[in-house]
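User: Here's a protein and a ligand (flavin-adenine dinucleotide). What would the complex look like?
Assistant: Let me lay out the input and then the predicted complex.
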Amino acid sequence: MRPWNGRRHTRRAEARPLAASTRSRPRIAVVGANFAGIAAAQQLGREYAVTVIDRSPWFEWLPNIHELLSGVKRPADLRLPRKRLVNRAGHRFVRAEVSAIDARRGRLVTATGRELAFDACIVAVGGVNETFGVRGVDAHALSFKGVDECAEIGRRLAALARQRGRRSVVIVGGGLEGIEALGEIQRRHGRAEGMAVTVVEAGPRLLSGTPPAVDAAVRRHCAPRDVRFITGTRVTAVTARRVRLASGELLRSDLTIWTGGVTAPPLLRESGLADRPRQWAPVAQSLRSRRFDNVFVAGDAAGLPRPLGKQAYYAQQMGNCAAGNVRRALAGRPLRDFVPAPKPMLVAFGDLDTFLVSGRTVLASPRLAALKEAVFQLTMAQIDPPVGAPALRQTTARLAGAAQRLMRRGR
Ligand SMILES: Cc1cc2nc3c(=O)[nH]c(=O)nc-3n(C[C@H](O)[C@H](O)[C@H](O)COP(=O)(O)OP(=O)(O)OC[C@H]3O[C@@H](n4cnc5c(N)ncnc54)[C@H](O)[C@@H]3O)c2cc1C
């Protein structure tokens, strides 16, 4: 039988179980250690030699990073040390940037030239900031992609709020990230004299993909405030003090926040996992790469046969599924399909409102913020069960902080 390492994937290969690795402890590499990568690593037992690689030392809880803008959360609330999570599962964590995945040879190469051999690889690298090639975004706008970036936006907003006269903040993107950012700005600075916010959205309305009632509610909450919404208009350039629109209008901007969503990272194309730039890595429903049998792709990076929303919850589910299928592939057993479990979406709008969206149904109440907080706390505790003094201290501090904030909200 041919080795399965690096064999190019065919349609028939999906149905056919593969030969087991001849090693006593097959080597599994997990590239990317956030929602999908950590879930995968935690599913794999010590019978495998698992190496988990990420460029940064911190797991980051991204669905609540907007709260860094108002200071309701601090960076430490949203981070867990990856080394601890990975070591506790019995695996090795390597902090490095992976610059190439050579599936044919079963090797990863890091930016410093280090090579790492694998029998199977789980690629969970997420996405990168989508700028749509708009001029000036990288140089003049602050992106909304991680904890450091959002903490910096929070600091700049606070500095701006301390100034006098008219100040103008422009949020590019009226999707989930942009509207959650607006909510936090309203929570902290909504009553600051002279602090204006403009939201620019290319689509016809805010929060596309949710019922129009959510767009209407957001506008209603902002009607008495210094907030302007511009929909159906693209941004064409960003400079240090201006945002140019396709309509020709120039907006003054003292702080431009870019929430353009995510696109596929170049690594996928460069490693042959995708055919085109900005294409998510095509996978079968089992999450096995359509290009290489020894690679599985989980989380945002996976291009499923039927596209799915890029959500943390799905990424975790995919991480579990990919790990299970790597185990099956190594044991020569048939793979199982990834079946996404539908889940309602919670959209926070500062202290003004929270929306629970399930299909066409929307529930709205500021009290639902407690539900979003509970999801955060419970999932963080699942990812990092408080075993041992450091984890126990961190969980206690996070819960105490959350309880205090909820009490403040209730007053
Ligand atoms: C602002 C914001 C708000 C969001 N809100 C929600 C929400 O409310 N609900 C929800 O369900 N989802 C939400 N999401 C989406 C959710 O966060 C993503 O779907 C989820 O993070 C995807 O998980 P992932 O593990 O696939 O990728 P990511 O979380 O992006 O993790 C990828 C990891 O790979 C690492 N990596 C990438 N390339 C390399 C490399 N070359 N070498 C080494 N390491 C690498 C990165 O450092 C990172 O740790 C939000 C996202 C953002 C940005």
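Summary: Residues 31-37, 53-56, 62-63, 65, 97-98, 124-126, 144-145, 176-177, 265, 267, 299-301, 310-313, 315 surround flavin-adenine dinucleotide (CB under 6 Å).
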